[in-house]
Amino acid sequence: MTRRTMLLLGLVVLGVPLAAPWIAPFDPELQLDIVALRSLPPSSAHWFGTDSYSRDVFSRVLHGSRVTLSIALAAVSLLLLMGTAYGALTALAPRVISNALRRALDLFLSVPRILVLLALSAFIGPLAVWQLVLLVGFTGWFAVARQVTDALDALLVEDFALAARALGVRSSRLVWRHLLPHLLPLLAVSATFAVASTIALETTLSYLGMGVQPPEASWGAIMRDGASAMTSEWWMTLFPGLATMAVTMACNALGDALRPPRAASQVAS
Amino acid sequence: MLRLLPGLATRLLQGLIVVFTAATLAFICLELAPGDQATALGEQVPLAVRERVRALRGLNDPLPVQYLRWMRDIVRGDFGWSVSQQRPALPVLLEASTNSLMLVAPAFVLSLGLGMLLGAWQAVHAGTWRDRWSGRLTLAVYSVPEFWLAFLLILFGHGQLGLPATGMVNDMHAYYGLLDRLQDRLAHLVLPVITVTLVGIGIFSRYQRSSLQDVLQQPFVRTALAGGLATPRVRWLAWRAALLPVLTVAGLVLPAFVAGVVVIEQVFLWPGLGHTMLMAIAARDADVVTGCVIIGSSITVLGALLTDMLRVLVDPRLATGVSRIEPTER
Amino acid sequence: MTPAYASPPLLDVQSLQIDLPVGGVPVRAVDDLSFTVARGETVCLVGESGSGKSLTALSLLRLLPPIARIGRASRIVFDGTDILQLAPEPLRQLRGQHVAMVFQEPMTALNPVRRVGSQIAEVVRAHTTRRSAEAWEDAVRMLEAVGIADAAARARQYPHELSGGMRQRVMLAMALVLRPQLLIADEPTTALDVTIQAQVLDLLRAQRVASQMALLLITHDLGVVAEMASRVLVMYGGRLVEEAPVDVLFSRPAHPYTQGLLAAVPGIRQDLGHTRAADDEAPRLATIPGTVPALGAFPSGCAFRDRCPLAVAECASEVPALHQIGPAHRARCHLVREARSEAHATSPSHEQGAVRP
Question: What interface predicted TM-score (ipTM) does this complex get?
C-alpha cells in the first residue's frame, strides 16, 4: 500500500466523522414524517432509506461514525497506555515480581473479553459513553502488554541496552530514551489493529443492547433497531454494517502496511 | 511423551486456578448486582413469599458464608437451581454445553483446516493477484462484526435458499422419522456453522500466511533447494516448520471463539452456553450464570492445554524447553 | 589467461553480471566476473563483505533471491552445460548431486523441526532410488565420515541439540553424501571456533583427495587461503581485481588492495604496508584507510580508487581492465600496465608487474 493510499485512508476515516454535521442531509434524530416517510427503502431522496421512526438512515450512519470512532480512539489510547505501562513494568521488574505479573497476564488473556463485558454491562445496567470507553479500554490492554513485554525482553539483551546498563544508565532513563523509541513501530501496528477490533467490539455490544444507549446512536445501535425486521427492512442493517466493515478493513489494512515488508522467496511462484 | 507429564500437572493446576478465579469473579459480580434470586421471581409474587424464599435459600446470610456454601456445592457437583427454568441448574448447563459444542467443534476444525490451506496457498503465491484478492476477501471477513456476517448469511441463506434461520430444530421435529430428524438438525446447523467457520478462516489464514512467509525466508529453505530437493517437497517442509505459530494462535484464539459464539447464538437463537448465559443474566438466574462461566472457562483451559500438547509434538524445540516461539501477529 | 590444463575446466564462469535492486534502483553487485575451476582444484574466492563473493556463489546454483537479475551475456558452464539455461528438473538434479553447496550460518541453515539424519537421507532419496532405510544408513555413514562420534545416535537428534561445529559438519555431510564433483563452500569456518575450523578444513582436504572433488572456497580469512588454495581470486566492489596461484599471490601481490590485505595481517609482509610511522614512533599496524562502500555507492572508474594510496587521475575516469602479469597472474589496475611497460623499457631483472609504493 503506497503512502498516498495510507494518507487517503487516514483522511477519510478521520475526516468523515469530523465533517458529519455538515455533510449529513438531515438531522439524525429528526423524525421527518412518521406517517408518510416511515421505513422506506433507499431512494434518491434518502440514500440509505428511513427507519421505523422515519429518520434518515444515511444521516444516522454519518453521525454514528462520530460516536463509534470517538469511542474507538479513546479506548485504544487508554489500552495502549495501560498495556505499555504494564508491559514495561513486567520486563523491567525484579524476577519475582516479573514472574507474578506474567502469570497474571496469562490469566487475563485466557478470559474471553466479550463475556466479561457482557456480564459486567448487564450488572451495571445501561452504560454512559465514558463508562463504555473505560470498560472496553480496561479489558483490551492484555495483548498489548504481552507484545510490549516480549519486545522489551528481546531488546534488553541487545548489545546497546547492555552497554547502557554497563555505563550505569538509570532504568527510567533507559526506558524513555533508549527503549521506547524502539517500541513505536510495534505500538503503531498494535494501535491500528486495536482500533479495528474495538470498532467491531463496540458495534457488537451496541447491537446486543449493552453498548451505546439511545439517544446516542453508533452503528451497532442502528443495526439493533433494524434487527427485528432484518429481511424485510434490510437497509437498516446493511449500510451500517458496510460502514463498519469498510472502516475496520481500512484500519486492518493500515496495520498490515505498517509492518516491515518481507522479501520474496525462492519457492514462491 | 512421558517427559511431558510434570509440565502437564502444572498446567492442569494453573487451569484449575483460572476456572476457580473466573467463577469467583462471577459470583462476586452477581452478589454486587442489585436484586437476587428472590427478586428474579418477579414482582407479581408477593413480598412475603419472596422473603420466605430468601430465608430458605440462605440469601440473607453474610457473603463469605454464601460463598463457602456455594463452593462446597460446586465441588460436590451441585450446581444449584435455575430460577428461570425451575429445574436443577446442572441439566440446563449440560444441555447448553452440548448445543454449543455441536456448533463450535465442527466450525473450529473446519476453519482451522481450511484457514491453513488458504493461508499456505497465499504465502506460496505471495504478491500475485491471487494472493492480493483472496487476501482482501479474508480481510473483509476478518474485519466485520460476526453478527453482521450472520445477518448477511441469513439474508441470503434463508431469504434465497430457505435454510432455517433460527433455533436448532423445527417445531415438528419430535414427529419426524429418524432420517428426517437428522436432516432437520443438519439443516439448522448450516448457517450458524458457516458463519463461525468464515470468521475462523479469516483469522487462521492470516496467521498461516504470515507464518509461512516468515519460514520461507529462513536459510534452511535455501539449503534444501541446494540439496536438489523438488520445490513442492521444499514447500511441504517449510509448511511443517510453519505449523507451530498457527497452533499457538489456535490456542490463543480459543477464548475469542467461545466468545464470538455468544453473539452468533443470539442471532440464530441457538440455545447454547452463550445464549443461556445472557438469558440467565437478564433473569438474575445466578446459579446458571456462574455455572456457565465455570464451564466456559473450563472449555477454554482444556482447549489451551490440548493445543500446548500439540505444540510440543509439532516442534521438537519446545520439548527441550527452548524459548517460546510466538506468532508474528495478533 | 587461465592456465592451460590437460582437460577443459569443470566450471567456467563467463562474464557473470548480477544486478540487485537497492531502494528500488538496480545496482551492479557483480560486474563482468570470469574465472574457471579445474577438476580436483581448490580455488579460493577472497573478499570482504560487500565484494559480491557470496552472491557469486549463490548464482552458481541459481539460488539468488528472485529480485536479483543475472546479465544476459553471463554464462556459467559446468561440465559443458550452461547452468543458467537449464530447465528446472535438470537443475534440480544438478544441485546436491554434481554441485553441492555449504552455507555459512549452521545455526539457521538446517531445518529445525527435522532430525539431522533425515535431512541428509532426504538428499540421498531426492537423487537416487535408495529406500528410506538405506538412505538412513548412508546418512549415518556420512556423519561418521565427517568425524561425528556416535553417529547413529546423533543422526536422531535435532539441530538445536548439536553444537555449532557439529551442525557445520552435518551440512558438510549433506553436501558430500552424493560425492559431488564441485563443492562450493561459503565461509564454512567463519562462525566456528579456531580448533573446529582446523578440523573442518582437514575434512575438506581429505574429501578432496579421496574423491578428486573440486572446491570453490569463499572466505575473507587469508589464513584459510594459505592453507587450502592452489589458486586465489580476489574480489572488490563486485569485480575480480586479482587472480594468481597462491604462492605468487602471497609473495608478489600486484594489486594495491591485495597488498593492503596482506599487510593488514600482522606478521605477514609488513613491507607491503602503505601506512608509515614517523621515525621515532613504534611501527603501526597497517590498515587500508576508509571502509568498503555500500552497494550502489561504488566510485566511478576503479572501485578501490578512493582508498588506494597510489591512485592517479586515470583511476577515476576509467575502469581498469585485467592485465596479464605472469602466466597465471592477472590484476585489474592501471598501474600494473604501466609498471609492466616500464619494466620492459628498463632493466629486465626488475620484477614484472608488482606495484611498488
Answer: 0.83
